[in-house]
Amino acid sequence: MFESNKDRTEILSADADGIKKASALLTEGSLVVFPTETVYGLGADATSYLAISELFAVKKRPQINPLIVHIKDIDTACNLAEIPEAAWPLIEKFWPGPLTLVVQRKKICNSISNLVTSNLETIALRVPDHPIALRLLTEFAKPIAAPSANLSGKLSTTRTKDVFSNFRGKISAILDGGSCSIGLESTIICFESNKPIILRLGGIPLEAIENQLNQKVIIANEVRKSVEKISSPGQMLSHYAPKARLKLNVVQPKENELYMGFGFMPTESIGLNLSETSNLIEASTKFFATLHDLDKMAEQMKIDIIAVAPIPKLGLGLSLNDRLKRAATENF
Ligand code: TXA
Ligand code: MG
Question: Would you say the pTM of this structure is higher than 0.85?
Answer without folding.
Answer: yes
